[in-house]
Amino acid sequence: MPNLILANLTAEIEANVRRALAEDMGSGDITAQLIPAERLAQASVITREAAVICGTAWVDAVFRQLDSRVTVHWQVRDGERVTPNQPLFHLEGPARALLSGERSALNFLQTLSAVATRCQHYADLVHDTAVKLLDTRKTLPGLRLAQKYAVTCGGCHNHRIGLYDAFLIKENHIAACGGIAQAVKAAHHIAPGKPVEVEVESLEELQQALAAGADIVMLDELSLDDMRRAVALTQGRAKLEASGGVNESTLRAIAETGVDYISIGTLTKDVKAVDLSMRLSL
């Protein structure tokens, strides 16, 4: 279950930004029309709080799509930790474009930086262990790749991207297929070579998943003692992923059981936007 390698996000970023600008601009920014079209301006953006930055390419795309005459001068890069009141970037160009693009640009930057910041915080808590922290599909609709990219900027890792790139066989799938063995067998037949993960709720189900040939077994809300037993039982025959009941107070203990992965929905779901501020000067 390697990190997602987002080799080329260009098309995704452009599409994200087009939708955001269409939503915000509509038929046009009527307030910006108060300013003469030829007037040039500068602006600076700072962070009001400590954060891990992510989303620079989205900011670039906002101003590029609005007016190619706008230049963006970055003083930080994705994945960089910043401190309160630190300058992030400087803008130069038509005042109308700077003001029209402000909200969309900061929305992307504050949201993706929030994800990266949360991920870095969790990654720091287990930095000296071998465990990998994984995101989930609990992402904002339309921004999945953006948020999953932010996860990697914060030092965590990507689970499957969607419903198409790996099997995740859960309780209802197992019931519908008639059992763990039947479900895994069907998965191997439908898409040979695709990773097959099975969610289990007991050590007995773990043994069934191992016997069926699952590549990854998700231990759903097992106790710490049962997680340790699961690691001993598995002996490397499959990767083990812990899920459920994961928070700051439980993370370290779960990591020390010896599981390979811990999946955490809160990496993308329960984040608070980073506080950013832009100031314009003529």
Give an account of the 3D structure.
With 282 residues, this protein is an alpha/beta fold. Helix content is 42%, strand content 19%. It contains 10 helices and 12 strands. The chain has helices spanning 10-25, 56-66, 95-125, 144-153, 171-177, 180-190, 203-212, 224-234, 248-255, 266-269; strands at 40-47, 51-52, 71-74, 81-82, 87-94, 132-134, 167-169, 196-200, 216-220, 239-243, 261-263, 276-281. The strands form 3 sheets. The chain has a 6-stranded parallel β-sheet. The chain has a 4-stranded antiparallel β-sheet with strand order 3-5-1-12, covered by helices on one side. It has a two-stranded antiparallel sheet with strand order 2-4. Helix 1 packs across helix 2 (56-66). Mean pLDDT is 96; it is low at 1-5.
| Poorly predicted runs | 1-5
Can you give the mean pLDDT? Answer: 96
Dominant shape? elongated
Instruction: Supply the number of helical segments.
Output: 10
How would you sum up the major sheet? Answer: 6 strands, parallel
Distance between the termini: 50 Å
Helix/strand class: alpha/beta
Q: How much of the residues is beta strand, in percent?
A: 15-25%
**Neighbour order of strands in the largest sheet:** 6-11-10-9-8-7
Instruction: Supply Rg.
Output: 23 Å
